[in-house]
């Protein structure tokens, strides 16, 4: 079972997400344990203080190291697996599908969610193993980014999704954007499902899906094509798609 702990000042923010949908079912199946920890409870101050003004002056408040270190060290007494301790912050490595796949191999993850101006630098230097950001923008706290990352990671665990191939063919898992999907009815308001998908010829369907994934990636995220290993057939398809795009003037 994977164990995920989230250090936060607002554990109630996690309740609905952790109990609902795929994450809730994953816990019911015993695949993952999700736990929100209020690190204010580890403050040595009688008032539960977890932040203070920055040395050197400046605006805002900075999270103190003592309560966060104490909370993580307490969690370590309850597990034998060395955890990845992840700081959610705008300065961190951009979270990607590859990172989700990497973290899904771990037994224990600890997410630290901050508020205020930032963290005491000693938390970064001596406690965390990873710093993650979900994008180049700033939020009021790390809780939403942590929930995004946890959802992305947990759905990759064996047995979480009903169809074990779903996560394998997701956008970004193959390096490409995912091909289009269709379901019943075969015709809706005059819009028909591509004939190839109704043919029952699985080899041709796979070729069509690969081509559609290449086409969608070329149109929407051409930068991704520079990062993946393409087959000779992929290159032929891309050459044809680029020619068609030039001829159409788009």
TrEMBL record:
UniProt binding sites for S-adenosyl-L-methionine: 114, 134-139
A biological process from GO: tRNA N1-guanine methylation
Residue span, tRNA methyltransferase TRMD/TRM10-type domain: 2-227
SUPFAM superfamilies in UniProt: alpha/beta knot
Catalytic activity: guanosine(37) in tRNA + S-adenosyl-L-methionine = N(1)-methylguanosine(37) in tRNA + S-adenosyl-L-homocysteine + H(+)
Subcellular location: Cytoplasm
Keyword Transferase tagged: yes
Keyword terms: Cytoplasm, Methyltransferase, S-adenosyl-L-methionine, Transferase, tRNA processing
A GO term for molecular function: tRNA (guanine(37)-N1)-methyltransferase activity
InterPro entries: Alpha/beta_knot_MTases (IPR029028), tRNA_m1G_MeTrfase_C_sf (IPR023148), tRNA_m1G_MeTrfase_TrmD (IPR002649), tRNA_m1G_MTases_N (IPR029026), tRNA_MeTrfase_TRMD/TRM10 (IPR016009)
Pfam families named among the record's database cross-references: tRNA_m1G_MT
Gene Ontology CC terms, in alphabetical order: cytosol
Gene3D superfamilies registered for this protein in UniProt: 3.40.1280.10, tRNA(m1g37)methyltransferase, domain 2
EC number, UniProt record: 2.1.1.228
Keyword Cytoplasm: yes
Chain's role: Specifically methylates guanosine-37 in various tRNAs.
Quaternary assembly: Homodimer.
Family in the record: Belongs to the RNA methyltransferase TrmD family.
Name this polypeptide is given: tRNA (guanine-N(1)-)-methyltransferase
Species per Swiss-Prot/TrEMBL record: Paenibacillus albilobatus
Gene behind this protein: trmD
């Amino acid at each position: 079972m994977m164990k995920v702990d989230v250090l936060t000042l607002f554990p109630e923010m996690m309740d609905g997400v952790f109990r609902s949908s795929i994450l809730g079912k994953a816990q019911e199946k015993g695949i993952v344990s999700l736990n929100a920890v209020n690190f204010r409870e580890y403050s040595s101050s009688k008032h539960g203080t977890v932040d203070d003004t920055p040395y050197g002056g400046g605006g805002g408040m900075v999270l103190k190291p003592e309560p966060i270190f104490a909370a993580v060290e307490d969690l370590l007494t309850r597990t034998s697996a060395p955890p990845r301790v992840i700081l959610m912050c705008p300065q961190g490595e951009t979270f990607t599908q590859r990172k989700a796949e990497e973290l899904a191999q771990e037994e224990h993850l600890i997410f630290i969610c901050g508020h205020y101006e930032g963290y005491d630098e000693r938390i970064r230097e001596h406690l965390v193993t990873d710093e993650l950001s979900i994008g180049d923008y700033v939020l009021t706290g790390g809780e939403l980014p942590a929930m995004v990352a946890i959802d992305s990671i947990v759905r990759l665990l064996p047995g979480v999704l009903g169809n074990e191939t779903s996560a394998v063919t997701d956008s970004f898992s193959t390096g490409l954007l995912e091909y289009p999907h269709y379901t019943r009815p075969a015709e809706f308001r005059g819009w028909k499902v591509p004939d190839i998908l109704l043919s029952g010829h699985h080899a041709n369907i796979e070729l069509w899906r690969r081509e559609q994934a290449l086409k969608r990636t070329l149109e929407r995220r051409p930068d991704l094509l520079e990062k993946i290993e393409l087959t000779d057939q992929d290159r032929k398809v891309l050459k044809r798609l680029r020619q068609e795009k030039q001829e159409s003037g788009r």
